[in-house]
Design goal:
The protein is built from ten helices and six strands. It has 238 residues and is α/β, with parallel strands linked by helices.
């Protein structure tokens, strides 16, 4: 069973080398390309101030984060959640760099790429659409994913949008989050959530009735008479 996790983070600033820290992580779990509803979302107290420019992007203030847990308090839970999965991340080096730094500060000696497969959707989009914009907003527009509720960035919101984009880019179903509500950042149940069960379900097989089979054979006979031959004829021999 293929387990994939669409992951996004928000941070205090752009450069992990300058001591910036993670403040939010959001994950959407897929198994065999279907949502499981086993998602992961946490805010984190970064133990430092959020840059003004970063706050303008995600809207997470120092006051809001002050009473949130430190990363060390969620590290084991997040590590176990991610372990063994394929991580689908937009601009993966950025998020993985911050996560590896946070895990290292929490005492972990391994890096994420040692326990997970990392797939970067920026690199994927550049291969598919050379010379085109590949930011998340541009890809949402390209693949008709509704991001009208994305006034500010948010880890879980962006992970849900990226899930739609990824499924569309890779040729599968593409409406994980078409219906979401701008209600304090809490998404409504998506159309895919409503249409598909949480767990994998066997496809329902509907067989033709005897009357339908007879009508089908009659149609093949008509085509053979008009065209002189059929590209397939096994059913006429039955």
């Amino acid at each position: 069973m293929q387990r994939q996790i669409i992951l996004d983070t928000e941070t205090t600033g752009l450069e992990v080398e300058q001591g910036h820290r993670l403040i939010e992580v959001g994950c959407i779990e897929l198994k065999n390309r279907r949502p499981t509803h086993n998602n992961f979302h946490r805010y984190v107290n970064p133990e430092r101030a959020v840059d003004y420019g970063a706050q303008q992007v995600h809207g997470l203030s120092n006051d809001f984060l002050a009473d949130k847990p430190l990363f060390g308090a969620i590290a084991n839970e997040l590590w176990e959640y991610l372990k063994g999965a394929e991580l689908i991340i937009h601009n993966a080096p950025f998020d993985v760099g911050f996560l590896n730094r946070e895990f290292a500060l929490a005492g972990f000696t391994q890096k994420l790429d040692e326990i997970c497969k990392i797939t970067d959707t920026v690199a994927m989009a550049r291969r598919l659409h050379p010379g085109q914009k590949v930011n998340l907003d541009a890809l949402c527009k390209r693949y008709s994913v509704d991001n009208s509720h994305r006034d500010l960035h948010g880890a879980l919101l962006d992970a849900r949008l990226l899930a739609d984009v990824y499924l569309a880019m890779t040729g599968g179903q593409s409406r994980l989050t078409l219906d979401t509500a701008d209600t304090g950042g809490t998404p409504r149940k998506s159309r895919l959530d409503e249409l598909l069960p949480p767990k994998e379900a066997a496809l329902k097989v509907i067989s033709a009735t005897e009357a339908e089979r007879v009508a089908h054979i009659a149609r093949l006979e008509y085509i053979k008479k008009k065209a002189g031959k059929l590209l397939w004829s096994d059913e006429l021999a039955q």
